[in-house]
Amino acid sequence: MLRTQPAGLPYSPLIAALSLGQIISWATVYYGFTSFVLPMMAETGWSKPLVMGANTLGLLVWGLATYAAGALVDRGQARWLMSGGCLCAGLGFGLWSQAHEPWVYYLAWVLLGLASAATLYEPVFNVITRRFPQDYRRGITTVTLVGGLASTVSFPVVALLIEHLGWRGALAALSALMLLAMLPLHAWALRGEYGSPAPASAGEAVSLNLSQAVRTQAFWLLTASFAAYAVVMAALWAHAVPLMAAKGLSETQALGVLVWVGPAQVAGRWLVSRFGSGVPLHGLGVAVLWLMTGSMLLLAWGEQTSTLVLWAWIYGVANGLVTIVRGALVPELFGRAHVGRIGGAMSGVSLVLRSMGPVLVAVALLWLPGYAQAVLMMAGLGALSALAFMGVRRPVPPG
Length: 399
Known about the structure:
Blueprint: H1 11-30, H2 33-44, H3 48-74, H4 78-97, H5 102-119, H6 121-131, H7 136-147, H8 150-189, H9 210-213, H10 217-238, H11 240-246, H12 251-258, H13 261-275, H14 281-301, H15 305-334, H16 339-354, H17 357-364, H18 371-390
């Protein structure tokens, strides 16, 4: 029998706990990597493709594990999934801090890839969608609104940790944070979840299962759109600090640019939460994907710090809104009953391709004149993402 109110935390405290978990998890597991690239290369003497390759491996593991993570949420196992993800993150950061050989470093990123699949937005979106059928769009917007501060937190905090503890000590501190704070938080907040979603509300899309979803054009167009977008984002963030250095910015100046991405994400999400409740998700997605593509052109050609800050704001607004669209459009198109598996399969394809982004740019830089040309390549992928998204229509349920 379906249960409308599973035991566990009610809406407000659960959303608050998940929001805190997302800002910390994204700041450490995802955004933190680029700050370690240059100090690692300086100490170890490892090449940029070798250093970026571990991040690529982590993204690949993330993609391969995403479907399984979604299936666990569908079965009501989000508590164990996300708590286990925090454990993997803590162990991964600890192992990375002690890496003196490449194989140890790469093993650490296998653990961090598993942590990404288990702790970042996708499982949180699925939990909210299943538990709160009337408020899932608002819940997703709230979590991403807070999570948008992750990059703003990550760059200065990680830089401060590296300055005072060295890059190895900074990683040890991140390990302790995930094990001693984030793991208990998720174990507490997600207790009492059941596997069955609350009943469908009036006007909600008829739920398709995965085998039905993959036979629709909407599934593959969304997958292609999100995949192209994901490749761009992975490459951009892995190379963000070296890219700014190539433009002649000091580390302080680079941080002064990158920290604005977070507030811009939050500003865009706040505007949608405040004024956009009736805005169609598809139209919003088309607009922001083209906006993101335009921002990449500004990044490619911009040299002045003021121009790059403008890029950070435009890109941040677009990136923040894409996350809301991605999280809320899947249940709107395919229903909620199998959202973990459908979203996991879709994200898995995207993330496997996304894993190639950082190392492809690193290799491309061996023959491209510089980062400007690499960013123009990213803009081209952004345009393909927008074009694919424009073709998405709600699938017709089976008769």
